[in-house]
Amino acid sequence: MQLAFDNVTKLYGPVIGVNDISCRIGPGITGLFGANGAGKSTMMKLASGQLRPTSGRVTVGQRSAWSSAAKRTLGFSPEINSFYEEMTGRDFVYAMTRLYGYSAAEARERTEDALDEVGMRDRAERHIAGCSHGMRQRIKLAQALVHDPAVLLLDEPTSGIDPGGRKHIGDLLVGWASRGKTILISSHILAEVEHLADSILMIARGRIIASGTIAEVRELIEDQPFTVEVVAEPPRQMAAALVNLDVVQSVEIRGDVLTVRTRNPAQFYGQLSDLVIDGGYDVRRLAPLDSGADAVFGYLEQGAP
Amino acid sequence: MKLLRACGTLMMLSFRRLLWSTSTLMVAFPLIGSGLFLLRRRYTYGDENSRYFDVYSAFTAFSEEFVLALFVSFLLPICALAYATMSIGGDREDRTLLFLLVRPLPRTLIVVSKLLATLPLVVGLVVGSFWVYCKLAGEVGAIAYPIYLPAVLYMTLAYVSLFHLFAVTFRHSTIVALAYSLFMEIFIGNMPGIVKRVTVTFFGKSMIFEMGAEHGLPEPDPEWFVPVTAPGAGQTLVAICIGALVLTLWVFSRREYRDLT
Amino acid sequence: MGIDNAHYYGWEGRLQSPWRSSLAIVRVALLQVFRRKSYWVVLALGLLQFLMFWGLIYAIKQVNFPQQVQDEILEFMGFEGAGATENGYVTFMQQQSVIVMILLAFAGSLLVGADFRMGSLPFYLSRRIDRRHYILGKLLAISTVVALMTVLPAILLFLEYGFLTASLDYWVDHWRIPVSVLVYGAVICTVLSILIVCVSAYLQRVAPIAITWSSIFVLLASMSRLLRRDGGSMYWGLVDPWRNMRYIGRLCFGTFETNEELNFALWALAIMTVVCGVALALLVRRVRAVEIVE
Fold this sequence. Notes:
heterotrimer, A: alpha/beta, Rossmann fold, Alpha-Beta Plaits, 2 domains, four-stranded antiparallel β-sheet, C: mainly alpha, about 75% helix
């Protein structure tokens, strides 16, 4: 099932939340990145049916996200940490499950399954008021996926969770995505999510500035410098050879490490292969330094209108 | 069927949370205080310790001092405020309303479920406490309970509906409800002329004056208070209740609550 | 990265007394209150009374009403006889009680209740201040809110009355009026701020605060009035906190006609002192109960 934004604009009085956004999300994991105030939360609220677009249309499958029918296929884990604090984690998830109209027995079963999936089954008897931040995150996740939604919206799902927990949740999401679910993750921890996400949406100043896989997005910015670290022997000779390549902007030597800047990575990699074979250099390491989502986002945001 | 079950769950959830809230504890103090007031200011008549000669004067004093001045003007709106503004307002304040809005329950049903969770609490508290007070008041209370009960019920329904409307409309709904019930109702309700007809208290008092008249409750000074007939007042209170409910449903089904996340 | 490289540097100036931090708490608290629309709505309701008094004083001084009408208006406003006494202004402050009560229920939950509910207290107490400074700051903030609704308008009415007389002698002859307004205002501000900060620290949410607060200031006042009716003891008046505060204010000027009234005022002082003392002790205990990681 797809989550679709068609020419969506959301105004908060004179302030623009999102501006003429169009995209199709899912199936699979999509990462939503943007700086604070870029419009990520507005997109999440529009997708979860908390806000209605000022113009345009947000749909889940064929239904408007605002409608209650769409919410049956939607699971939402918000960023906020507000709960019914006096309840236990198990009671909270159970109550939320019953709100989908399940019978008591089915709701109980689904609650246990969801708690099990997020690794909270043994700790769910604790009152939420006494739960750690990480436990609260898992409870939020459990209530979002308890009804087996086709579309899962997760706002900062791994914030406050320890590394082991993050890996666990990452594996869980990948498993869900492999079953054809649509998952939209809004996160600031780009390095982690870019490994999970099949595609990314980058948003700045209320507009989507890039979408696709990290590699696809990287191709969009060929005019931006691209940095590659090369560890090779002999370093000085190789640096001299690299400088002579048309696509190389600069080479920096520090010990046996060369930091190469280029504007055309695809061409650079082609020419580098020839150079290494012709010169007989011993290349021990070759790693792009800034092809990650952070760098891509940084470049794109600078160029955003 | 699924929708009904979901509404039932929400109703029970809201009912339990309201019942075990601090509001229940705090509303108990004025209710107990009023009971103590009744024990001190006895409305008995005829014997040497009594302040009143006959049942009429005792009934009039009970109606004017307790029913009109304390119960209808203060205790009833406070009981309604304690729960009606908190049923949705509490979820807004705690930002847990978000968890309800992302469920597949139509917004109108969320309001109806919340209202149905609030009503038994408020009606139970108001009618129950009124029954206890009438018992404490003795013979005049036994006369007052059946004749004033409709007015009390209608007023309760009107206040609960109005405060639900405040809760879905205003962020600080409890303060708005407090200002409304203690300032607007009293300030406008005591102004000369027909302006007081915009208040709930006016119609409740009109019913009480008419119902109490046959037991000796004097008619109010026409320069300050010209009551409407009891059936008219009752109908108006029901109309206020329905009007407020329709408005609540309309506002809540369209409203975007941006302060939740 | 070493801390030097991050361009951190120590404060080399001289830090002022932590008591001055209370003023910062007051400033922040008042900004919090003034930012809310609800405050301005309640303030507007409070202004209705002020404008009514203002208009009536203007009418009395500028329009030649028959003496009887003038006397009736003055009596209605609480001014005794043809000349203004301090009672008129104090009556105005007394009649602001409901609005002040509503405003304080709002301010208490916003300024104090929210600190406990949202866990903001560590932001204050992790500075160079302790609970005394925090409590003082909150008390001063609440007092300012109360004063803006009671003392300031009463002083403005006094100034208006003086402006509208033929000479400035009114201000000189009635110098006791502003002083009594200030003293009564100080009593109101002290008592109300201690009580609301204490109630808000324990109840935290608006609804229970509003129920408790209105029960104390509206229900008790009504009960007290009813119990004093038909020959009831004057001492039932002691359950009405507003009445007690008024008598404490009068105590400062000795304007009592009978010994019974003076006795009543002394009782009122004793009761309010005990109540405020208990509230303050509970408040100190509550603020101390917050766990701060050292």
